[in-house]
Write a structure and sequence with these properties.
99 residues; mainly alpha; 69% helix; 0% strand
Length: 99
């Protein structure tokens, strides 16, 4: 009976070692769980960005308005017959009041 009890305690000790310190232990499990959560957040952001890019591509393929807007903003192009005015202002310092 003592041998059986000793074997059971030894087996319990080995299982506890594997649970806390061995391969695939609980701390490793929680670390991997955190990494999965971080990766899923990163993937969500990338999916949203890709969706915006897909919509922009389809808009550029379908209509001329998006293409025209992009040409105006990025290349500074103007339509024929339009006059382009650039307003350049200087930064004004806030007025100071002295008592």
């Amino acid at each position: 009976m003592k041998r059986f009890l000793f074997v059971l305690i030894l087996l319990l000790g080995m299982l506890q070692y594997r649970l806390w310190l061995g391969e695939n232990s609980l701390p490793e499990y929680f670390s991997l769980k955190q990494q999965i959560h971080s990766q899923m957040e990163s993937n969500g952001k990338l999916i949203e960005r890709n969706q915006v890019l897909r919509e922009e591509i389809s808009d550029l393929r379908r209509g001329t308005e998006a293409l025209e807007e992009r040409a105006r903003n990025e290349l500074g192009m103007v339509k024929e017959g339009e006059t382009f005015y650039r307003v350049v202002g200087s930064e004004q310092s806030p007025s100071r009041t002295y008592d």
